[in-house]
Design brief:
The protein is of the alpha+beta class and 231 residues long. The protein has one domain (5-219): Glucose Permease (Domain IIA) (Distorted Sandwich), CATH 2.70.70.10. Helices cover 14% and strands 25% of the residues. The strands form 3 sheets. It has an 8-stranded mixed beta sheet with strand order 1-2-4-11-8-7-6-9, covered by helices on one side.
Length: 231
Amino acid sequence: MNTIQFPNFLENLSSEFVPVVSSEFSKEDYIAIDLSENNKELDKIDVSSSEAFEGYIESYLVKSRAKVAYGGYNETREIYRRSTHFNQQNPETERNIHLGLDIWCEAGTEILAPLDGIVHSFKNNTNYGDYGPTIILEHTIQDITFYTLYGHLSTASLSSIKVGQKVVKGQVIAALGSAEVNGDYAPHLHFQIIKDMQGNTGDYPGVANKKRLIYYLDNCPNPNLLLKIAT
């Protein structure tokens, strides 16, 4: 399937908003948030502190009269510089361009499967600044197989899950983790769509560098094509 066809395929899988966090939130409860290097408001807080970052998100939601913040696909961020996991020695190889869609809401929020599928793999990715507990689902629709990744979950989310386990659209598959277990971030879901897992299990790069960006944007198209949070 070529670069043009797969995004079209994803877009045609849904005709309206598809929740991937608690079904208690409607589309109208969401607000876009800019966490890129261009947002100078972030210069005023210590982005290396998950507590300070959570305070920023909470105040943004209050100010916006919203319940959930979302965004970040193909967004260049400075926050990753706090962690050696993202290798900032060289501007060309520094991994700082986000490949998923982040959904910011409270720890403990239920995570929903947006499509039918099976559990492909899961893992607790414990590097500082990494995903923490992570689940990857495999979906085969119209003979096309692809994957969805759910990062920054609670540790309990991995306690009873099994590879090959069937899930149905709308099923609760996990819960959001707190900063203590989610890689030291304010609570949020990292949701990513992946065409080719490249042999990875329980993990897949969620942040790219400039050199590999074209490949990764092709392999990981915009999740909003499916979720339709923004239209």
